[in-house]
TrEMBL record:
The lineage of its organism: Bacteria, Bacillati, Bacillota, Clostridia, Halanaerobiales. Pathway: Carbohydrate degradation; glycolysis; pyruvate from D-glyceraldehyde 3-phosphate: step 2/5. Substrate binds at residues 19-21, 34, 57-60, 116, 149. Its main location: cytoplasm. ATP binds at residues 199, 322, 348-351. This is Phosphoglycerate kinase. GO terms for molecular function: ADP binding; ATP binding; phosphoglycerate kinase activity. The gene is pgk. Its EC number is 2.7.2.3. It comes from Halothermothrix orenii (strain H 168 / OCM 544 / DSM 9562). PROSITE patterns: PGLYCERATE_KINASE (PS00111). It is found in: Cytoplasm. Belongs to the phosphoglycerate kinase family. Monomer. It catalyses: (2R)-3-phosphoglycerate + ATP = (2R)-3-phospho-glyceroyl phosphate + ADP. One of its GO terms (biological process) is glycolytic process.
Length: 393
């Protein structure tokens, strides 16, 4: 795909899709990683003398204006990080953005309002996409986190403008691509999260690539059930038990070691201060539920496998890590990865949050800024936002 280096940006109105979908609490940004991650592209464009028009979605406002999801706090934070004025307008199409763009000097930075305030964004409505594209002469996609969405601001605009990849998008594709296409062995994947149904495609794709698949979290419960264990009140997907059995068989046939928890932390209630204890995974009493797949034996086993790995990819916590009582397994995995000399790649979303919560982000080779996007990548599927960019001739 074409990149920033393929374009002369001087004086060009440049529409840049970034993923500024950051967590907010009471109007304050609680994690600005995604804004920081976009800085290399923005700074480069500023230095090249482009007129930088940024756009992003924030949250899920369902095609209507939601005041709490305006991008003003983002504009403010971006201005601080850039050390430069950032103009913010209150819509992403129409007269206000047009006028603001017409007043821009080379090197100026403008932030449009939340693209999802218009229903046309998610529908990839051609007219909405055209109105966005009309603001600019060239398009840069740097929103890896939104690259799995075929929306107007990620795909639609590419119909109208020369379209290239930004530095963050490139960095993500290189890091994830290198791990998936050219891994050192043993290649270990850790999959957690709540539901098997979200991860079927990923598991299938990984079974053709990895040497070990360490399973935890809600997914593991369904696998334990498939092995004939009782899992009490644990979160399971009864209708996925047959599928889990097939996947266990497929793993065996393909020589992949699909590893399940040996012992787990169970609780009487889904509560931080619930009565809890460690039990063997095959003896979960009725009325109890697994809230952390990482009992001490499981942690030891998974950590040993990680220690001898050359490449580790991780998606999804293996317990309810938001509650400290049930975060031990997830933290232990993060620590095992931090200790290992393997190339360690963390899918975005919850696993990235867990690594940050443990303060280990500097110890990983790559932490993706994309949750759903990295999952789709691990699934081996093409990302629509990447596919839509111009190919190098
Ligand atoms: C994310 O946070 O994963 C991306 O910004 C995409 O957000 P979405 O899941 O609301 O499309």
């Amino acid at each position: 795909k074409k990149t920033l280096k393929d374009v002369d940006f001087k004086g060009k109105r440049t529409l840049v899709r970034v993923d500024f979908n950051v967590p907010l609490e009471d109007g304050k940004i609680t994690d600005d990683t995604r804004i920081e991650a976009a800085l290399p592209t923005i700074k480069y464009l500023v230095d090249e003398g482009a007129k930088v028009i940024l756009m992003s979605h924030l949250g899920r406002p369902k095609g209507k204006v939601v005041d709490s999801l305006r991008l003003d706090p983002v504009a403010q934070r971006l201005a601080e990080l850039l050390g430069k004025e950032v103009t913010k307008v209150d819509d992403c199409i129409g007269d206000e953005p047009k006028e603001a763009v017409s007043e821009m000097e080379n090197g100026d930075v403008l932030l449009l309002e939340n693209t999802r305030f218009h229903a046309g964004e998610k529908k990839n409505d051609p007219d909405f996409a055209r109105q966005l594209a009309e603001l600019a002469e060239v398009f840069v996609n740097d929103a890896f986190g939104a690259a799995h969405r075929a929306h107007a601001s990620t795909v639609g605009v590419t119909e109208h403008l020369p379209s290239v990849a930004g530095f963050l998008l490139q960095r993500e594709l290189n890091a994830l691509g290198e791990a998936m296409e050219n891994p050192g062995h043993p290649f270990v994947a850790i999959l957690g999260g709540a539901k098997v149904s979200d991860k079927i495609g990923v598991i299938k794709n990984l079974l053709d690539k990895v040497d070990y698949l360490l399973v935890g979290g809600g997914i593991a419960n369904t696998f334990l059930l498939a092995k004939g264990y009782e899992v009490g009140d644990s979160l399971v997907e009864e209708d996925k038990v047959e599928l889990a059995k097939e996947l266990l068989k497929e793993a065996e046939e393909k020589g992949v070691d699909l590893v399940l928890p040996e012992d787990v932390v169970i609780a009487e209630e889904f509560k931080e201060d619930a009565n809890h204890k460690v039990v063997s995974a095959d003896s979960i009493p009725e009325g109890w539920q697994i809230l952390d797949s990482g009992g001490p034996k499981t942690i030891e086993k998974y950590s040993d496998i990680i220690a001898k790995a050359e490449t580790v990819i991780w998606n999804g916590p293996i317990g309810v890590f938001e509650m400290d009582t049930f975060a031990k397994g997830t933290n232990a995995l993060a620590e095992a990865m931090a200790r290992s000399s393997a190339r360690t790649v963390i899918g975005g979303g919850d696993s990235a949050a867990a690594v940050k919560k443990a303060g280990l982000e500097d110890k990983m080779s790559h932490i993706s800024t994309g949750g759903g996007a990295s999952l789709m990548f691990f699934e081996g599927k093409p990302l629509p936002g990447v596919e839509a960019l111009d190919d190098v001739e």
